[in-house]
Design a protein that fits this description.
about 75% helix; mainly alpha; about 80 residues; about 0% strand
């Protein structure tokens, strides 16, 4: 049960994103399960943060530099 919930928190990236670890972290009474849920939540959120910046850079370049190659966006995606 503890191991299953902890494992599902990490594997939830395939079926529930960051919602499942968040729910387990808030609802679980077990300290070890909460710790794993928190780690899984952080590891699921790490890729989302740069994605937001890439989208903002892409929109900015498309609006302000309509006739040019979006270099900042390409660099952001590569990095």
């Amino acid at each position: 049960t503890r191991k299953v919930l902890s494992g599902l928190c990490y594997l939830s990236i395939f079926f529930a994103g960051f919602i499942f670890p968040l729910i387990v972290w808030l609802a679980s009474g077990d300290a070890v399960t909460k710790q794993h849920a928190k780690k899984a939540l952080i590891s699921h959120l790490i890729p989302i943060i740069p994605t937001i910046f890439v989208v903002i850079a892409f929109v900015y370049e498309m609006v302000h530099f309509q006739n040019e190659l979006p270099a900042l966006t390409i660099i952001s995606i590569v990095v």
